[in-house]
Design goal:
Elements lengths: L11 H24 L5 H9 L20 E2 L5 E2 L2 H11 L6 E5 L5 H9 L2 E6 L2 H13 L5 E5 L11 E10 L4 H6 E12 L6 E8 L5 E9 L13
Parallel strand pairs: 3-4, 3-6, 4-5, 6-7
Antiparallel strand pairs: 1-2, 7-8, 8-9
């Protein structure tokens, strides 16, 4: 038995220091999100709760609580937390909502969506990403999310969805995706400018008559879509 004057077991001090640093970094990240204008307390709480470090490669774990985009498998990138927060705030999620996410990636945003909504259907064209996301969501005990390997714009999905989040920069919204949106539902995506040099974050609402009403939520950086399912990955 260790007495009060004994040294800590090997590695304990290092683990305690690491945990303390993570808490400090997470607090700093939340403060930065507030300076970016994020005010939705549910979004901030979800970002604080879901451990981003679980969704990145080990060598990038120390950067997980920084407001940085980070590389993930299959040559893809995880968006920076400030952009994720802006997209989630624009979605205006409610607990009763059914959500479609196109572009699962690491599954990080999927986990946040599942913590804020009733159910999430997430689609990605890379089987490697889908498998990894399923594993991480399972480790977190998240059951209200289905992750599917498919082309999000061609998959046979069963709507309607109250909210749709597309992690891509598009020239225009594909009609099949708009058709999946419930009347009064909201869709958030990146819209490429005509010059193709910038992307705007757009919130589109489907009115009761079926027309789409869009509002601009500022500049963002999102990738362009890749067609079909990845053959090798």
């Amino acid at each position: 038995m260790l007495d009060s004057g004994s040294a800590s077991p090997p590695g304990m001090a290092k683990r305690l220091m690491s945990a303390h640093t993570t808490i400090e970094n997470r607090a700093a990240l939340l403060l930065k999100l507030r300076t970016h204008g994020i005010r939705n307390t549910d979004v901030l709480r979800a970002i604080e709760t879901i451990p981003r470090e679980m969704f990145v490669a080990h060598q990038f774990a120390d950067l997980a609580q920084r407001d940085l985009p980070l590389p993930i498998a299959c040559g893809q990138t995880m968006s920076e937390p400030s952009l994720v927060a802006r997209m989630l705030e624009a979605l205006d999620l409610r607990r009763e909502h059914r959500v479609l996410e196109i572009g699962t990636g690491s599954g990080y945003v999927t986990a946040i969506l599942a913590s804020l909504a009733k159910h999430v259907v997430s689609v990605d064209r890379f089987n490697t990403l889908v498998a990894g996301a399923r594993t991480r969501l399972g480790q977190l005990g998240i059951k209200d999310a289905d992750v599917i390997c498919a082309d999000g714009f061609a998959a046979e999905l069963v709507g309607p969805f109250d909210r749709v989040l597309i992690h891509l920069s598009l020239g225009e919204l594909p009609a099949p995706v708009c058709d999946l949106l419930a009347p009064g539902g909201a869709l958030v995506y990146g819209r490429a400018t005509e010059q193709g040099t910038a992307t705007r974050l757009i919130r589109a609402i489907r009115a009761s008559a079926g027309e789409i009403e869009a509002t601009d939520h500022g500049a963002c950086l999102l990738p362009k879509p890749i067609a079909d399912i990845a053959a090798a990955l």
